[in-house]
Structure formats: structure tokens, C-alpha cells
Amino acid sequence: MPQPAKRVGILGGGTAGATIAIRLAALGLETYVFEKKQSLIDGPPMCHLHAGGNLYREIPDEDCVALLKQCIDILRLYPYTIDVRPTVFAVPTRDEGLPEDLLPRLDILTDAYRELIAQDPNNKVLGEPEDYYQLYNHEQLLALAEREQVAIPRTVDEWMIPVAKYLDLNKVKFPLIVVQEYGWNIFRLAASAQLALAEYEHAHVFTDTTVTQVMPVDCENCTNADHHVTKWRIDYQSASSSTEAVQEDAIEVDYLINACGFRTGVIDDMVGVAVTRMVEFKSSYITHWGEAGGQIPEIIVYGNRGTPEGMAQLTPYPDGYFQIHGMSHAITLFDDGLVASNTDSAQPKLPQQYVHYIEDGWDKAPLQARSQQAIDYVAQFVPTFHSARSVGNALYGGQQIPGEDDTLRVADVSLYADIRYARAENVKASSTLIAADQIVNELAELGLVTTDTPANRHRYAHKWPYLAHNDSLTIDSVARELAEQRGFPMAMAGVNHGIREAILSSL
């Protein structure tokens, strides 16, 4: 008789937990996901596919290339989550940097993209390599400002017309840089993961569920730091929607994966693993601007993180909604929002106020105040944005950062083979599929899964079952339900330009 499938427990249903679950369930592993919230992938603010990491002038070129590769890879798993529109990067006149400083990196990224397409033509999801980035000088922008804005932009020039009209060209250096970095929609990502996991009979998703304890079951020399574990017991409590009673249960698994996001250290403490890490509370703000005149690209104005002149990020959604990041302590960052672990615990302790925001929602007065500060900050560069209004909500949460470097942007997973434990530590959501691959390799070495199978090869060809019979409209429907459930405008669940439609129209 065939052996029953091995069991894997995944604690946390954010981007990491959900993506790892898709990967493992596809291989036939009995995969159990435990998520505290009502639905999957309801976490820290995200809005941007970092296909090249151009937001971060401070990180190394090799990290930018890694982000490019990871983004293209995960885009092919979640194609209906992407809004195809360029991102405009501007260096303000008050900044010491120059636009030309960024060009060598952009050439490296263009070459890397060209090489990825040579390896697999299906990697051409960001347009032609020669169009990966383009430059616009002052004279070009003045000419574009005279043109009539196009309702549905089809060319980069058409995307740049509203930038030329609305951006204060006296406050930026030239050239402006336009890069094919697209929007990434968290509501559509949550919908895609939910539909993908529904494809697998081996995927078991527990939402509204709190893990209370994890304990080794089969353990050799448990009093020794060099002990071995072959099974874990997960104790959990689930809220019953019918009776509102709390149901307690437990399950044994052959491998344990910690994907708890900013609460990762809580599980590390239970497991007995000492780790150094940081957690940062961050927030972005949702506004409505009725004077945009149609679709506009994302606009990034560089600045030094954590200073009063930190980066400004204006991210468009359909129907005039915009998400704002301002990387200063008055807007997205918080004076006491970055905390570190200590020798007593692997879990950094966020101030209780931020834990309250994460668990219960923002208090109205500080949310409104920060939203207005965000609007005023963007309006320094886009003057007519002063007319924008807060919609009384934000995307926020705790972001984990492994180690002691708060500029780290590329991280994936830590593996502990002796105790059959993995910890996913993804600073950026694009790293999650790579993390899943590393866990699969570890499971194969432990003899818990076989990788020489069609299902494993399908991953690298991106043949995901849910994509065969779910289209953009299906994703849209589920995403709208999630946006409404979470208290956001339903329009934010949509995209103006879907990736598959854009690829088809370019053929």
C-alpha cells in the first residue's frame, strides 16, 4: 500500500505562508495553513512590484537583479494581480543625487531582463527589454504638457502627459526616469491565493484561527541544544462562525513552517531558536483625487529615508483612488516604530499602540492627521493634489527584517533540518516563491517529498492549475469581496491594465 502523504504545518497565511502552501500542496503534501485573520494575505502595505528595486538607491546592484528575477517569477504565479503601468522616478532639486547616477544600474537590469527572456521567452512580462526604462528631458516634458490627456494611455508618451501637466517641473532634476515597474494589488493577490489553494484537496486552510502552542512530539535529546525533532504538534483555537464559540484542537505534522510575519519571533521562542531580528510598523494612506483627469503612472520622488524629506510615493488605483507612502516619521514611518529582538526573546516588542492598530484598526484622529500630512507632502511636488481627500483608511502592518540591517530588502528563508523547521522571512513579497523552492529542496533531502515529478516541473513552467479556469473576472469578483470585507473602496480591487491583456495586445 502507498504511504500516506506527509503533513506540513504552515503558521501564517500572508504572502509567504499562502505561496508556500500552494507550492507544497501541488506536490501532494498534506498542507495545513493557520491564519489569525478572516482571509489570506491581509498584511503590511504593498502596492508595487519591485521589478528591479529602483525605489531603493541604497541597496546593491545584485539585490536589484535578485528582485527583478523574483518579481518576474512570482508574477507568472499571480498574473491577475498586476496593474500594467509604468513608474516614474524623479530626483528632487533639494536632493544631492543625480538621475545619471542610476543609469548604470538600469543598464545592468536591462541586460539581466534580456538574459531571463533568452532563458525562457515566457519571462517577457515587462515588455521589450529595450523599453525597460526610458528618459525624459525638460524640453520633452514641456512639449507633452501641451498635449491633451489620453483617457486610456497606450504609449509611454501618453502615460507621461499627466506627469508633465501635474508634476512641478521646477522641483525636480532631469531627466525623469520611466521604468516598467508595475502595480501589485494586495486584494487581487489574496483572491488569487485563495482560488489557487482551493484547487488542491491536500490544502487545508484555517482562517480565524490562533495557534496557541507548538510542541515537539518525537524528539531526541530535547534538553540538548543540538536535539532532533521529527514531528511537531500544533495546538490551535478556531472561531466557529455558527456558534461564535472557540473550538480547540491539535494536529501533528512532519514539518513546521513559521510564516508569521512580524510575529515570527513568537514561534521561534516556542521552538527554542535564538534569532536576531527587527520589526517595523509602517503605514500608507488611501486618498481620492478627482482631478487626475484619467489614468496616471506611479510617481516616486526620491529622498533620504527617515528624514523630513524622505521618498514620496503616489500609487494609482482605478476610479481616482491613490495610495501614498511618505518615508518620513510624520507619514509612513514612526519614531518608535522600529524595534529589535533581545537576548530574552526572538520577538521584537512593538509599542502596544501599534499592536492595537494592527488588531483593532486605527483610531480615527491620528489616521486623519497622518492622511492629511501625506496629501500635503505629495502636493509639494504635485500641487493640484492638495484637493485630494482621505477616505479614512490605510494599509499598514508590521514588517519583519532579519538581522540588524534595516535597509535589507532581499531575504527569503532559514532552514533547521535537525528539528524539521523552517522560517520564512520575506522583507518583500516577491521573495516568497524562492523561499518555497528552498523549503521543497529541504523536504526532499529529508525524504518527505519527491521532486522528480511532473508537478514539480510544472512549477518551473508556471503551469498552475487555478490559472486554467480562473480569469481576470473571477479574480476581480473575489478581490472586490475582500476589499469590501476589509473596509476599502471596492474600486481598489481592480486594475486598469491587466498583465495578460497587455501581453496579448502586444502580440
TrEMBL record:
SUPFAM superfamilies named in the record: FAD/NAD(P)-binding domain (SSF51905)
InterPro entries in UniProt: FAD-dep_OxRdtase, FAD/NAD-bd_sf
Highest rank taxon of the organism: Bacteria
Pfam families the record matches: DAO
Tagged with keyword Oxidoreductase: yes
Keywords for this protein: Oxidoreductase
Chain segments annotated as transmembrane: none
Molecular function per GO: oxidoreductase activity
Domain annotation FAD dependent oxidoreductase: ranges: 8-385
Name of this chain's protein: FAD-dependent oxidoreductase
Annotated source species: Psychrobacter halodurans
